[in-house]
Design brief:
This protein is mainly alpha-helical and 146 residues long. It has 2 domains: 55 residues, no CATH class; 73 residues, no CATH class.
């Protein structure tokens, strides 16, 4: 069984246990990149060592990246031009990479032809405006330790 958040939990637990066990050392393999702020990450550098493989996306996850992913999802959702149940049927059928473009043309509007005055689009723009204001105070998070 794999533990997908084990390195993150180990890092937080080591931070909590360090005062009671001053010689504690934590080796975190592939910790999520959104655990500690810069100051706390630097403070933990003497007892937490994080290991990251070159191609793993989990240590590179950040709040900003998740916000971008959500916005891309909404943008794609706005472009859907068929009933959602029909889109579901399209997604259930396996397509080769050659046919993906033609399938997308059947179910998605071109970006410049997305309706600008729909209720959904208006609500999404309100949501994005609210998130922009809230994100101005966002704390940047980092991998724990060194």
């Amino acid at each position: 069984m794999w533990s997908f958040l084990g390195a993150g939990c180990a890092s937080i637990l080591s931070l909590m246990l360090r005062p009671a066990f001053p010689s504690l050392q934590c080796f975190a393999y592939e910790p999520p990149g959104c655990i500690f702020n810069a100051e706390l990450s630097e403070l933990c550098a003497e007892f937490i060592t994080s290991f990251v493989r070159h191609d793993d996306c989990i240590p590179r996850i950040s709040y900003h990246n998740l916000e971008l992913l959500r916005d891309e999802f909404f943008t794609t959702f706005e472009r859907i031009k068929v009933p959602k149940i029909e889109l579901y049927r399209h997604l259930r059928v396996p397509y080769s990479e050659v046919h993906v473009a033609s399938r997308n043309a059947k179910v998605l509007r071109q970006i410049d032809r997305t309706p600008l005055e729909s209720t959904f689009t208006t609500k999404i723009e309100q949501f994005r405006a609210e998130r922009t204001i809230k994100n101005m105070a966002t704390v940047h998070l980092f991998i724990p330790g060194k």
